[in-house]
Amino acid sequence: MHIKSIKKEKYALQKILNEGLKEINLSLLSQSEENFFKFLALILRENQKYNLTSYKSPSEIMINLFLDSLLLLKIPLFKENLKILDLGTGAGIPGIPLKIAKPGLKMHLLESNQKKQRFLELVLKELNLDGEILKGRAEYFAHQENYREKFSIVVSRAVAPLNILLEYALPFLEIKGVLAACKGSQIFQEIENSQNALKILGGELVEVIETLPPFKKIKRFIVIVRKKYSSGEKYPRKEGKALKYPF
C-alpha cells in the first residue's frame, strides 16, 4: 500500500484532513496541504526501509500522526520565527506536521537513530522545508553552547515518562520557555512522579490541556511546563543515567 493507494484514496484523505483541521480550527495554505500528501507518500514508500511507524494505511497515518501532531497548535504558543526543538522526533512527528502547517517556525529535529536521520533529510529535501536535524542524543546536544537554553519551545511525543523527559528537555529551553508534551491518560500519575524533577531542573507545571483528537474517542493530554530558572550545568546527566536513575 504505497503511492497508488494515496491516489485512489485522495478524495477520502482530503476529507479526513479538512474535517480534522476544522475540528482544531486550523486552515492551511495550498502548498501546506500538498506537503502533507507528499509527506504521507514518503512515509508509505520508505516505512519498511526505515521502520518509521506501525501504522500502515494512509488514513491511519493522517489521523494518528498528522492530525494528532497538529493538536499542539490549539495552544497559542506557536508563533512565526520561534525556535522549536522536536525532541526524539523519529519520523518527524510532531515536528514536520507543525512545520508544514506553520512554515515560519524555526524547527530543529533531534533524533539519535541513523536510519531515521536519513529519512528526515529526505523529507526536508523533498518538501523543500528549512530546518536542522540534530543527529545524536539529548544528553550531548543539551550541553552544547549553540543549543543549551536556546529554544522557546520543546515539543515531544511518546519519548519518555515525564520525570525523565524533563531532564532531557528543560536544559534546551530558555528561561520562560515551555515544554509541550503530548501524553495519554497516564499523565496524572506521571505528574505526581515528576515533582522532584520539576524542582531540581527548574520547571513549573502550567497546565494540562485535555483534547479529543479528530476521529478518535480516546482523550489526549498536552502538558505545558514552563522553565522558571536554569537547570544545573550537570543536567542532563550522561547517556542512560536519566533512564536508570530517574528523579
How many distinct helices?
11
CATH fold descriptor of the domain at 75-244: Rossmann fold
Instruction: Classify the beta-strand content into a percent band.
Output: 15-25%
Principal-axis shape equals: globular
- The arrangement of helices and strands along the chain is HHHHEHEHEHEHEHHEEH
Measured as a percent range, the helix fraction is 40-55%
| Structural class category | alpha/beta
How does the major sheet shape up? 7 strands, mixed
- Computed Rg: 18 Å
Provide a descriptive summary of the structure in words.
With 247 residues, the protein is an alpha/beta fold. It has a domain at 75-244: Vaccinia Virus protein VP39 (Rossmann fold, 3-Layer(aba) Sandwich). The protein has eleven helices and seven strands. It has helices spanning 3-8, 10-23, 30-50, 58-70, 95-101, 114-126, 138-141, 162-169, 187-192, 195-201, 241-244, and strands spanning 83-87, 106-111, 132-135, 151-157, 173-183, 203-211, 220-227. Helix 3 runs antiparallel to helix 6 (114-126). The radius of gyration is 18 Å and the shape is globular. The mean pLDDT is 93.
Describe, in short, the structure shown.
By secondary structure, this protein is α/β, with parallel strands linked by helices. It is 42% helix and 20% strand. Helix 2 (10-23) packs parallel to helix 4 and helix 3 crosses helix 4.
